[in-house]
Every structure is written in C-alpha cells, then in structure tokens.
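Hey Z.,

So I finally got round to the NAP thing we talked about over coffee. Here's the setup:
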Amino acid sequence: MIYSKIAIIGIGLIGASVAIAAKHKKLAGTISCFDANDEARVQARELGIGDEVSESITACVSDADLVMLAVPVGAMKNVMEQIADDLKPGCVVTDTGSTKTSVIKDVSPFIPEGVEFLPSHPMAGTEFSGPAAGFASLFEGRFWLIISEGVSRDKVDDYTAFLQGLGATTEEMDAKYHDRVVAITSHLPHLIAYTIVGTAVDLESDIKNDVIRFSASGFRDFTRIAASDPVMWRDVFMNNDEAVLEMLQRFNEDLSYLQRAIRWKEGDKLFDLFARTRTIRKSIIEAGQD
Ligand code: NAP
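And the result:
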C-alpha cells in the first residue's frame, strides 16, 4: 500500500475512476472523496465510490498523504484556498487538470510550507461526466503525465508507483511543453468538433434533420467529442489560450492550403497529405493508444 489515506476532490469521471481503481487495487488505506455538488456526493455514496464521501472538504483532506484535485481547471484555485490550512505536513497535493501552466500559477501560491505540489494529467477520458461515468479501467495502458520539476524524488516515485498501480504509464514533462502537446493532440480536436457540430446545428432545419439521419459517416465521431462537458472544456480554452491560439494559427494555414488545392483541382496535394496522415493512424494503433 503506497498511501495510508488519499483525498480526492471532485468526484467526476476522473476523480471517481481514480477512487474506484485505487480501491479495487488496494493502493490506499482509506480513500476519502468530496464534491461541492450535493447530487454528486449522494450518487457517489450510492455507488460506493471510495471508502467515504465526506460532507466537508476540510475533513476530507485532513490526515491525507495524497490530495488529488480532480475539478475543472477554473476551480483549482478556489479548492486550494479552502484546503490549504488543513493539509497534513509532508503530504503531496496533485491535480488531474488538462492544462498545467495555469494550474501551477493558480495553486502554487497556496501550497503551505512542508507540503509539495506535484501537478499531473491523465491522458484518458470519455465524453461522459459525473460519478456514474467513472470506471476502474479508464487509465489502463494510458499515459499519465507528471510535472515533477522541483519536487522531492521520493514523492515523485511514490506517486509514480500509485499511478502505475492504476494501470497508467507515466512520463515526466515540463509544464509549458505539456500545454503545447495537448493543445494539438487534445484541445484543438475538441475545438474543431465543437465548431463542426455547431455549424451543422446552425444549418437550415431540413438539412439539420438529415445531418442527424445520415450521421453514420465522419460526423458521428465529431458529435461524440462535442458531447464532452461544457464547463470542463470552457475552462481548458480559457486556461491554455496561448498554446491553443498558436496551434490554431498553424491549423488555419494548413486548412487554407487544402482549400486552395481543392479549388485548383490539385489532387496530388490532397493525396500526399492523406497518405501521410494514414501512417500516423497506424502508429497510434501500434502504440496501443487508439
Ligand atoms: P467532471 O466529471 O465534470 O467532474 C468534476 C466534478 O467536480 C463535478 O462534480 C463538479 O461539480 C465538481 N466541482 C466543481 N467545482 C468544484 C469545487 N470548487 N469543489 C469541489 N468540487 C467541485 O470532470 P472530469 O471530467 O472528471 O474532469 C476533472 C479534471 O480532470 C478537470 O480538470 C479536467 O480538465 C481533467 N481531465 C478530464 C478528462 C476528461 O476526459 N474528462 C481527461 C483528463 C483530464 P459540478 O458538476 O457541480 O460543477
């Protein structure tokens, strides 16, 4: 057992999945959970998520060796302010937020003396949210990125062992680099999905009906991504604006290139790109990340 007690704040898809998997794999003595949402606490209790669902955030974190913040990135600062005075000396605070530079900026000023902050990000998820969305195998074979700079090696090693216990593969990374990588691999694809589904919804009603009827082609995959939690994703774009805008600029340039190739009937340019991208898909499958 790696930790005597862990506290998970935010019992949504990620927090619930960690609690379920950690309990199943006996990675902690006690798993205490808290969520500001009354309905989420009731549901989590009914589902038996963790060992206890606390009614108070401070009681949840007291005596915990690991405190995991699994709330939307825009709420991290508020949570940290509430728990700062009740953290056990020597404990580690981590988070699961999809952006790292902004979370470090928001959370670090409230980390008390004797406590360390070890930011992290699981590269796993679904379009569902809330306690009922959680499941034990969510992190199996998925990457979990850790921003370990400046954190004691023994704390990083313990947390790494915990994440590996959840089934994840860990990788240490710099926060700014992380934000650029996820801007292109995760944030931009979501932005494109939200845009394309929004464009379809804005079409005249007769076309819109057929968009839904005939969605079995590529559109269906976009609707799945665009069904993701609106609060979480609003916060992601508000907090990783710099990296997303950089990737969006590059994307727009590449889109213009394709637009021009279509207009001038330059099929070879389209073919070359589509052939290159097909190999990327093959590499993702080979890496077990599909
Ligand atoms: P989620 O399913 O929406 O759950 C978040 C929970 O936190 C909700 O129950 C929410 O309540 C609660 N909450 C919000 N503010 C709070 C506060 N101040 N104090 C306590 N609880 C609060 O979210 P999630 O998908 O698990 O995501 C959690 C974090 O992991 C986010 O930072 C997200 O960026 C990151 N992440 C998500 C994914 C993914 O695919 N979903 C993947 C990797 C990382 P309300 O519903 O009332 O707001």
